[in-house]
Amino acid sequence: MSDRVIPLVDQRLRSLIARVPEQAIPATGLLGDTLGRPLRDLRISVTDRCNFRCSYCMPKSIFDKDYQYLPHGELLSFEEITRIARQFVAHGVQKIRLTGGEPLLRKHLEILVEQLASLRTTEGRPLDITLTTNGSLLRKKAAALKAAGLQRVTVSLDGLDDTVFRAMNDVDFPVADVLDGIQAAQEAGLRQIKVNMVVKRGTNEDQILPMARHFKGTGVTLRFIEYMDVGATNGWRMDEVLPSAEIVRRIHAELPLVQLEPSAPGETAERWGYADGSGEIGVISSVTQAFCQDCNRARLSTEGKLYLCLFATQGHDLRALVRGQASDEQLASAIAHIWQGREDRYSELRASLPPDVSTGGRRVEMSYIGG
Ligand code: SAM
């Protein structure tokens, strides 16, 4: 028991102090890290809880009834999140993705969306605000989120076969209710809806074509994600990864595809369009084709730690500054200082890392840092 739980809790407790540099670093919107990568995308985890127990993310054996989630007082309040987000936006962030855990479990999330929607980029434009969800609560929440200023949504769905999907979410949640959530999002006027499918070889690879056929021509973009070695609890094995190139090959054999240009720099998905013009799919190949070189994403954990990589082992504690005496300028300088020192490129280095790092023994969980 202790072998299973303590390492996770320890990882959450480890953190680096976010230092305010002696010399203020003014926010110019042009911040770069050690590899010259700009800061454009902020992912905010609003809860470490989820109502699903996907084996590749929050396996039931670890996230059981005894698992200690963060107590409410540890979580950043909506005002604290917005204050931190404002500094990130001043440094050039243009897109904010709310995630978790399951973000729709956080009560009154629409209030946070409304606060974030009032921020403006350094060019004076509204932010691109989106959300990643398992879809289970979308029917209930889509209209309020849209009214609050949410523009887009990404829904996770790992298959159309009810038996396969219920086994993967491990809480017996039916496919039909996720599809209904997607429909609710469309009815509410959310646009550019995406569906993320994590592909595990031998588990749901037979769902690739049914999913492609189902979403082709609907305006929903289906994206296939390689099963990643995030966190330390999912027992990841390389032989369970189905490379994106193979996914594209299988779809192309039945539904011809043509490769498309990326729509934005730093985009995680490689785009493929149906040759008959009936829409597109994406493949996210973070295992077989690392995209660290133009990674412009920062992650803010549920209790205010800044992580510079999905595979990081430690975050920088911004909450201590927010709950201390730091001014907005000091907070902005601290964020700039951390980003300027960033050299993370885990996925590119994966194969050459020592085993204790590459096998994930020290990594934080994705459900905590935000997907
Ligand atoms: N609960 C929300 C959801 O289901 O979308 C948001 C959080 S979830 C961690 C974000 C995304 O990460 C989901 O699309 C999920 O499938 C994906 N994910 C989680 N663990 C993964 C893994 N080991 N490999 C690839 N993708 C993973």
Describe this structure in words.
This protein has 371 residues and is of the alpha/beta class. Helix content is 31%, strand content 17%. β2 (41-45), α2 (78-90) and β3 (95-99) form a beta-alpha-beta unit. It is globular and about 60 Å long. S-adenosylmethionine binds next to β4, β6 and α13.
Q: Summary?
A:
The chain is an alpha/beta fold. The protein has helices spanning 2-13, 78-90, 109-117, 138-148, 162-169, 175-188, 208-215, 244-254, 319-323, 328-340, 346-349, 355-358, 366-369, and strands spanning 15-17, 41-45, 95-99, 128-133, 152-156, 191-199, 221-226, 257-259, 270-274, 280-284, 297-300, 305-307, 315-317. Helix 3 links the parallel strand 3 (95-99) and strand 4.
